[in-house]
Design goal:
Blueprint: E1 2-6, H1 12-21, E2 25-29, H2 33-41, E3 45-46, H3 50-53, E4 59-62, H4 67-78, E5 87-90, H5 96-108, E6 112-115, E7 118-119, H6 121-127, E8 130-135, H7 138-148, E9 152-159, H8 163-191, H9 196-203, H10 211-214, H11 238-255, H12 260-277
Parallel strand pairs: 1-2, 1-4, 2-3, 4-5, 5-6, 8-9
Antiparallel strand pairs: 7-8
Length: about 290
């Protein structure tokens, strides 16, 4: 399959490389010359602009920073330039309203489009073990699944247009809340004289168990290897967690939902980000406790 990939950052670069490994012909574009050079090393064919990139392709995949850029790229550079019948797949994490708006524009122009944000972070993007939460029609989902399965371990149809984004922001709001709670529990356990490993051994098999504890432990040297073992570098940056929490709060306000724990998590990460920790992994919040 011939696939255009737009957005080759920390996530997109690994995703595009995995499509090449799966045997696809990947046409790649990014504003960064460094990212383009790396994509070329991974076997992608690179282009000078997005409109050239989407010529004569079967699918377009994007991984972009925000909703404004997604809307601009698809409405200006993809829709009307990619061949009729191309399936459009946006893997960015953006607001639900924009995802639905762009999907409607694509549908009106005769394209199948899905919003397919991811879970798993940079390591999973590189390893091809992402989870995709997909919003769109059944037909669009089935077409997109043929592409997404080569970049992930799970591809789940969440519902209609925007449902993938809804699932992503709800999931990451829960993750942010869990991580803060996990960090608080470890901090309190140590203050009460418990060895971190001992507390992990107990809580990881008890009712306090959660993914932030057993798969992404914020304490160095405890549990599986995580960014905590690398000075809180790599993984999922605090700035990205804050972005997702802000999106969640916007969605909650629109839907009229009282998400007081999510709101408090956003406030905590806002303060942590403002203190100069934007690039640190979000589990580094434990250092503030």
């Amino acid at each position: 399959m011939k696939i255009a990939f737009i957005g080759l950052g920390n996530m997109g670069g690994g995703m595009a490389a995995n499509l090449v490994k799966a045997g696809h012909e990947v046409r790649a574009f990014d504003l960064s010359e460094v990212a383009l050079a790396q994509a070329k090393e991974h076997g992608c064919r690179t282009f000078a602009n997005a409109q050239e990139t989407v010529q004569d392709v079967d699918a377009v995949v994007s991984m972009l920073p925000n909703g404004g850029i997604v809307e601009r790229v698809f409405t200006s550079d993809v829709i009307g330039h990619a061949p009729a019948g191309t399936v459009l797949i946006d893997c960015s994490t953006i607001d639900v309203a924009t995802a639905r708006k762009v999907g409607e524009v694509a549908s009106a122009a005769g394209y199948d489009m899905v919003d397919a944000p991811v879970s798993g972070g940079i390591a999973a993007a590189n390893a091809g073990t992402l989870t995709f939460m997909v919003g769109g029609t059944e037909q669009a989902f089935k077409r997109a699944e043929e592409v997404l399965k080569d970049m992930g371990k799970a591809v789940i149809h969440a519902g209609g247009a925007g449902a993938g984004q809804a699932a992503k922001i709800c999931n990451n709001m829960l993750l942010g809340i869990h991580m803060i709670g996990t960090c608080e529990a470890f901090a309190m356990a140590q203050k009460l004289g418990l060895d971190p490993q001992t507390f992990y051994d107990i809580s990881s098999v008890s009712s306090g168990q959660c993914w932030s504890m057993t798969s992404y432990c914020p304490v160095p040297g405890v549990g599986p290897a995580t960014p905590a073992d690398n000075g809180y570098q790599g993984g999922f940056a605090t700035a990205l967690m804050l972005k997702d929490l802000k999106l969640a709060m916007e969605a909650a306000a629109t839907a009229g939902v009282d998400t007081r724990m999510g709101r408090r998590a956003k406030e905590i990460y806002e303060a942590f980000d403002a203190a100069g920790n934007a690039t640190k992994d979000f589990s580094a919040i434990i250092t503030e406790l």
